[in-house]
C-alpha cells in the first residue's frame, strides 16, 4: 500500500475494553501508509439495527464487518475498513463501524457518548441509523448529539460562552445522513407525497409545548439543525420478510433481497460515493490516512486524560505531523529533480543555480500545497535550510567532478609537453621560445575542451604553477638569449602568473555574487508563495465564515416561520459576531505575520542577510501602504 489503499480486512481502530478506550497500533500503521485524502463515512446508532450490514454494502461486499444474529451486540469499539474509493480517483474510502449504542448489557454507558462523539469527529459523512420511524422515541435516543457540546470544545481556552463555542462546530463537523431501516410508513404529509429529506426535515421541526417529553426530543432536533447544516435521509424497506433468511443476511445474493431494498441501498451507496466529501478540518485542511490516525490518537488521548477533546488542538497536532511530512516531501522532490536535471560538472555556477532555482520553486510549491498553520514559518525555514545545504553539497559535487575531469583532460593534453621536457627538447639554444610555443598550444587545446566546469581555470593554474621551476631552468639554460632577454622573459612569466591569479579571484567574486543573487531569488520566491498561500487561506476562512453565517440566518428564518420567536432571537448575538468576524477577515492583513516571516526567512539565508533585510523591510512597507489604502 504505497500511497493508496488495497482491499484489506476490517480492523479494530479503537478498542473499548473495561470502559477504557485504546487505539489499535496496527490500525494506525495501516492509516500511516495511506497518503491519499480520505473520505470517512462513519455509522452510529442503537445496537442491533443493521449498521454493520449497511456498511458492508458501502464496501460492495457481503462479508466484512461482522454481523451478529443474536440480540447481543456484535461490534465493539470502532472498526475501520479502508477500501479504494469506487469513484473518486486517488482517494481512499474509510468506513467506520461503531459499537451499537444503548446496549443494556453494558454496565457503563459513558463510553457510548464517547464512541458517538468520536464517530462525529472522525468522519466527513456521519450516518445515524435507526429502526422503523423518526419519532419522539427515536429522537430521544439521539440524546448523544446534545451531549456533544459538553464533550467537545473548539478552543483550548475554555470559552465562557458554550453557545458561541458550539456554533463553531459547524466548520469541523461532517455531513449528516439519517438512515431509517424497516421503514413501514408511506412517505406523505397531510396526504401529499413527500421526499425522504422532507420527511426528515418535518421530523426535525421543533414541537411547541411544555411537556418534558416533547422538550427532551426538541433538544436533539435543535442540535442536529445547529451542528449539521447538510442533512439527508434515506429510508429502507426490510431486506427480506423471511425471518430465517434475515438471520443469515450476509449469505444472501442481491436477487434474494426485497426489490425495494435493492434499489434503496443502491441509491444510498451511489449518493455516498458521489457526495461524501474528503475529510477536512476547518479552512479547507484536507486529512490524509496518516492524518486521520493522528486525529484518532489525539482525541482518544484527550478522552483518556480526562480532558475535553479540543478541535483547535487537534488541528495543531495534525499540522505538526503534516508539515513535517510536507518538508520531507518537498526536500525529496528537490534532491530528486536536482540529481535528474543537473549534468555534473555544470559548465558554470550560474547553470547550477538556475536549475536550483527551478527545483526550489517546485519544492516550495509542494510544501505550500501540503502544509498548513505553519504560523511562524518554522517548517518553511526548515525546508529552506535543508535546500540551502543540499545546494551547497551539489556545488561541492560539481566542483569535485570538475577537478576530476579537468585533471584527466590536462594529463592527456600535456603528455607530449611533458615528454619533450623530460627528453630535453627545450634545453637547447632557443629552447625557451620553443617551450612557450608548446605550452601555448597545450593551453589552447585545454581551453577548447568543452564543459570543464567551474574548476577549469584553477586546475590549469595549479599545473602551470607546478611548471614554474621547469620554465626557469629552460630559460636559464637558453644560450641564444642575453641576460637582458632572460630578465624580460622572467618578468613576463611572473606577470602572466599574477594575471592568472587575478583572474581566479575575479571568477570567485563573480560566483559569490551569483550565489548571493540566488539567495535573494530564493527569498523572494519563498515570500511570494507564502503571500499567495496566506491570501488563499484568508479567502477560505472568509468562505467558511460566510457559510456559517448563511447557516445561522437560515436557521433563524426557519425558527421564525415555525413560530419559535424566542429561539430565533437567541441567534442574534451569534449572527452579529459572525458578521463582525467576516469584516475583520476581509480587512485583515496581518503585519506581524509578514514581519515574522521576513525575519525567519532572513536567518535562513544568513550570508545574504544584509541585502535581504532591506528587501524584507521594503516588501513590508509596500504591504503596509497597500493596507492603508481604503
Ligand atoms: N430487520 C432488519 N434486520 C436487519 C437489517 N440489516 C441487518 N439485519 C439483521 O440484523 C442483524 C444484525 O445486523 P448487524 O449489521 O450486525 O447490526 P448492528 O447494528 O451492526 O449490530 P451491533 O454491532 O451489535 O450494534 C443481522 O444478522 C441481520 O439479521 C435490516 O435492514 N432490517
Ligand atoms: Mg455492528
Written description of the protein model:
This protein has helices at residues 25-32, 51-58, 110-122, 136-141, 144-151, 162-167, 196-204, 212-227, 243-247, 259-275, 289-304, 311-341, 349-370, 378-413, 415-422, 431-448, 456-466, 468-477, 483-561, 565-569, 572-587, 591-604, 609-628, and strands spanning 11-17, 20-23, 38-45, 78-84, 92-98, 125-131, 175-181, 188-189, 192-193, 231-235, 280-281, 285-286. By secondary structure, it is an alpha/beta fold. A hairpin with a 3-residue loop joins strand 11 and strand 12 (285-286). Mean pLDDT is 88; it is low at 1-5 and 602-611. An eight-stranded mixed sheet has the order 2-1-4-5-3-6-7-10, sandwiched between helices. The protein is elongated and about 130 Å long. Helices cover 61% and strands 10% of the residues.
Secondary-structure map:
Elements: E1 11-17, E2 20-23, H1 25-32, E3 38-45, H2 51-58, E4 78-84, E5 92-98, H3 110-122, E6 125-131, H4 136-141, H5 144-151, H6 162-167, E7 175-181, E8 188-189, E9 192-193, H7 196-204, H8 212-227, E10 231-235, H9 243-247, H10 259-275, E11 280-281, E12 285-286, H11 289-304, H12 311-341, H13 349-370, H14 378-413, H15 415-422, H16 431-448, H17 456-466, H18 468-477, H19 483-561, H20 565-569, H21 572-587, H22 591-604, H23 609-628
Parallel strand pairs: 3-5, 3-6, 6-7, 7-10
Antiparallel strand pairs: 1-2, 1-4, 4-5, 8-9, 11-12
Helix pairs in contact: 1-11, 3-5, 11-12, 12-13, 12-14, 13-14, 13-19, 14-17, 14-22, 17-19, 18-19, 19-21, 19-22, 22-23
The protein binds guanosine-5'-triphosphate and magnesium ion.
